Each structure stands twice: as structure tokens, then as C-alpha cells.
TrEMBL record:
Organism: Roseibium polysiphoniae
Protein name stated in the entry: VOC family protein
Domain VOC: 1-56
Protein origin, superkingdom: Bacteria
């Protein structure tokens, strides 16, 4: 079964500064939420997809990874030691056990199942319980990124209409962009991760259309052509990496590219709704 995109994790050093930068672009950003393993996040909710702006809030709570066990906190802590940016890509899940079986059948590297609940903080000061079942996997050809599927246990609590209204008209995920030296190297893993075996390969890169959002893997020259020199110059040499998120906006007249800079953590492409 093909899996749509669920969210992207954007690791930043200063959570409040990053949230302010997103808010200045016209996005509604949720209040801060805390994880029991030492990370904190603030979210940008779209229609069935969200951007998780994440930082390490209390390193003493982080549990180290062990054989067969993935550590969300340790992975993002170590990621932030080298740079800010998108550290994880997440696909939706309706059946974690099936996801795990599918990944193992394809020979992908998986880890022990992981589930958790946390308190969600709302604008009016009230709270609610949310919970998720995660199935982690990694790929040796993409060593600086992690991937997982996510089943939302309480979608009626998690998704909030107030958080999905944005001054810039943001409505839906358009695409996640990755840069790789040779995009064709990653078709097997990304196809297995999304459950989408049909994809489009060109001289510029690889495109995988999921039920929610496109994954586009470009070579460095193609990415530079897409976003311009300022955003392209921010891409470091440790490829592959997730470099940009495209958000479809109602009422927008012209496409805009906002480089990650020091605060956003990821280049943001605002695209008019068709």
C-alpha cells in the first residue's frame, strides 16, 4: 500500500527563534510541546501533513540508541552537532505491524517498534492527549537522515482547525526536495519507504508521487536551477540531504523561495494553488 507523507522533522538550535521565523512568513505555529526523551517541538499543521520544528530541550533525558533500538532524541542531538536542517522524513501509517513486515521483506534496516503519548498544548491554554506508533528505518546510502512511518492514535485531538489557518494561505504539502550526487541511487529505498513503486526518473533526478505530496530527489545543478544561488549555496557537501519543503498556498499569486538562513532550518518554497 502506498503511503502519503505525514511530516518532516526540522532540527534547529533555537526553537523559539525558528518558530518566530516561520510565523513571520505567515504560518501559524503551535505552542511548545515536550517529549519525555528530552526534545521539544512546535508544529506547522497543513491539511494532513505537518512540519515539526524540533530542538533538544533537556539533553539529560536522552536515551542512547542500542542494538535494534532507535533513539529519536540521540539521533537529533547528534544531527544538531553538525548542522541545522531536516533530519527525518515521515510517512503516514495505518498498520505499523504491516509497515514493519513490508520493510523487512524488502531487506530494509528496521528497529524495534516504538509508541508514545504526550500532552498537546493548545492556543487557549487547554491540553489534550496525543499518541503515535512509529516504525523507524534507515538506509546506509543516506547516513545523515532517518525515516519512519507514523500512525496517529488520536487524530481528532491532534489536528486542530485553529492551527491550520495561516495568514499566507498555506494549505497543503506540495513536495519534499532532497539533493543527492546521484538521485538514481535512492529509488529502491524511497520506493520501499513510501510503498510507491512507480516513479519518474530523468537526467535531473527522481520523482516519487505519494498519496500526499511529492518526493523529488535532484542533483545539485538541478536544485540550483529550481531555487537559485542563495538557497543552493546553503547545501553542504554531506549529501544526500533534505533541503526544501514546498507548501501550496491559497491566494498566492507568485511562487516564492525563502532560503533557510540561520532560523528556518529548511528552505521554504511557497507555491500558488492551481
Amino acid at each position: 500500500m502506498a503511503r502519503g507523507l505525514d511530516h518532516v522533522v526540522v532540527a534547529v538550535s533555537d526553537l523559539d527563534a525558528a518558530a518566530q521565523a516561520w510565523a513571520e512568513l505567515g504560518f501559524t505555529v503551535t505552542p511548545e510541546n515536550r517529549h519525555a526523551w528530552g526534545t521539544a517541538n512546535r508544529l506547522v499543521q497543513l491539511d494532513g501533513f505537518f512540519i515539526e520544528i524540533l530542538t533538544v530541550a533537556d539533553e539529560s533525558l536522552i536515551v542512547e540508541a542500542s542494538e535494534g533500538d532507535f533513539s529519536f532524541g540521540a539521533f537529533n542531538r547528534d544531527f544538531l552537532k553538525t548542522r541545522q536542517g531536516a533530519s527525518m522524513l515521515v510517512a503516514e501509517s495505518v498498520d505499523p505491524a504491516q509497515d514493519r513486515a513490508d520493510f523487512q521483506r524488502l531487506g530494509l534496516t528496521t528497529y524495534a517498534p516504538f509508541s508514545f503519548e504526550r500532552v498537546a498544548n493548545f492556543k487557549d491554554g487547554s491540553t489534550g492527549k496525543v499518541g503515535f506508533d512509529l516504525t523507524f528505518l534507515t538506509d546506509p546510502l543516506i547516513p545523515d537522515l532517518a525515516f519512519f512511518t507514523c500512525r496517529n492514535r488520536y487524530p481528532e485531538t491532534f489536528w486542530n482547525a485553529d492551527f491550520q489557518r495561516h495568514d499566507n494561505g498555506a494549505a497543503a504539502i506540495g513536495a519534499i526536495f532532497m539533493v543527492a550526487s546521484d538521485p538514481s541511487d535512492h529509488h529502491e529505498f524511497l520506493g520501499g519507504f513510501t510503498g510507491q513503486r512507480e516513479m519518474r526518473a530523468t537526467s535531473l533526478g527522481l520523482e516519487i508521487q505519494t498519496p500526499r505530496g511529492l518526493i523529488s530527489v535532484l542533483n545539485p545543478d538541478a536544485y540550483r536551477h529550481l531555487v537559485g544561488d542563495t538557497a543552493a549555496n546553503e547545501v553542504t557537501s554531506n549529501l544526500p540531504q533534505i533541503v526544501a519543503v514546498e507548501v501550496v498556498c491559497d491566494g498566492l499569486e507568485k511562487r516564492k523561495v525563502i532560503p533557510a538562513g540561520d532560523a528556518l532550518g529548511i528552505t521554504v518554497i511557497l507555491t500558488p494553488a492551481v
